[in-house]
Design goal:
single chain
Length: 234
């Protein structure tokens, strides 16, 4: 089955106002930047985003934030985005912060069809407020719900025309889990190859999870925080 679309704009043609979207990436690494830019152009509103972070000011998910397209975000880290901090303090966006391991497992569980699970992380803190707790073997656990979405935007290094994906190094991050947990998974890749060109043992996301795929036009490869050694320091 040929799942290739011409570009990011065609790939997101049916993303609707109020949609829940999982967006891959860790910081600026492995984020589907072409899909994000296309969504900004489309102007879809009232989005509920699920992503590790919200990019940085003016980059990645930060573009959606600046355009006023996100009303609710679920993630684990917000420290690099001053606009998000301002919006949260003003009450113009709803923010759910989730411990990173719990965040990962909630997505994995959602993709596996598991509606909820118990974890000790967050017990006795505001993380557990309003949630069911239960004791197992003398230890208290809090119940967390699995996460699913209408769409998942993922970025891979290589993909074939059927949608088999290979991620490269750190860019693998949340992308494979998110690909399993949405009704429609859309993949942008750096290299689009013919069916049979990928080593089957190296495929991270099988094609059954991917509905659309395209080769990205522009990858900026920005550095989130540059740290350099001072001259003369060993």
């Amino acid at each position: 089955m040929n799942k290739v679309v011409a570009n990011a704009d065609e790939a997101i043609r049916d993303v609707f106002d109020g949609a829940t979207i999982m967006i891959g990436g860790f910081g600026l690494c492995g984020m589907p930047e072409n899909l994000i830019r296309a969504l900004v152009r489309k102007g879809t509103k009232n989005l509920r985003t699920i992503s590790n972070n919200v990019g940085v000011d003016g980059v990645g998910n930060g573009l959606l934030l600046a355009a006023g397209q996100i009303v609710h975000h679920i993630g684990t880290y917000v420290g690099e985005n001053k606009l998000l901090e301002d919006m949260v303090l003003k009450g113009t966006i709803k923010l759910d912060l989730v411990p990173q391991g719990t965040f990962s497992e909630r997505i994995r569980a959602g993709g596996a069809g598991i509606p909820a699970f118990y974890t000790p992380t967050g017990v006795g803190t505001i993380v557990a407020d309003g949630k069911e707790t239960r004791e197992f073997d003398g230890r208290t656990y809090v119940m967390e719900r699995g996460l699913t979405a209408d769409f998942a935007f993922v970025k891979a290094w290589k993909g074939d025309r059927e949608g088999n994906l290979i991620y490269r190094k750190t860019a693998r991050n949340f992308n494979p889990m998110m690909a399993t947990a949405a009704k429609v998974t859309i993949a942008e890749v750096e290299h689009l190859v013919e069916v049979g060109a990928l080593d089957g043992d190296s495929v991270h996301t099988p094609s059954i999870y991917v509905k659309r795929i395209f080769q990205g036009e522009l990858f900026e490869r920005r550095i989130e925080r540059r740290t350099v050694r001072k001259s003369g320091v060993v």
